[in-house]
User: Fold Methyltransferase type 11 domain-containing protein from Paremcibacter congregatus.
Amino acid sequence: MLPWRFKNFISENFPLLYHKISNIGVKVNTAAYWDEIYDKEWDSPKRIWPTKNKLIESETRPTDAILDIACGTGSILRHLKKKGYQNLYGTEISPLCKRRLTELGITAFESHLPKIDYQDDSFDVVIASQILEHIIKRDRFLDEIKRVARPDATCFLFVPDDCLGPIDEPSHVIKFTRKKLTQLLSKHFTDFSVTSIKDENFPMPILYAHIRIPQD
Assistant:
């Protein structure tokens, strides 16, 4: 058995390698994997982000077409639905989530990231909450966000802030710092800010990127 310090070194410096080695024989990021998790955690407090909900609500309008990518249990969309938002969409790899959100009146569709299976220029608001750290082809994913966002759209992106690498969360393939996230976003967007916040439900810090898509 490898010493923890050695495993932590690999996780910190070669996170994708650690992710692949630690998940040999384990199917993560599959429909069945997430169906099982979301079925257990559908109404769990660990899936509810009050601070994010308030932030997104304060920066959007009930008439906006809003897409939450890899929306999980749909806690953000369900919050907005209760606040009178009607034009809500969610993508998920999990058929269970798609079915339950559809029953709640939220348009949900399956999408296997990094591809987003939706038309160009469709949404006023795009949310990617705690998902970028799961994606290997991050450049393609960010290009997909730009593609489905309308001109003058707003995007909200959240990732753990210098915590929860693959040694902590086996489905994670990278651990973001503010510098790493800024460098990545700079390749795709010109108008954005990155700040560190905390959600009232969680002790861990979160990087929050507020991205503005330019008008044509």
Summary: The chain has eight helices and seven strands. Residues 78 and 106 are 8 Å apart (CA to CA).
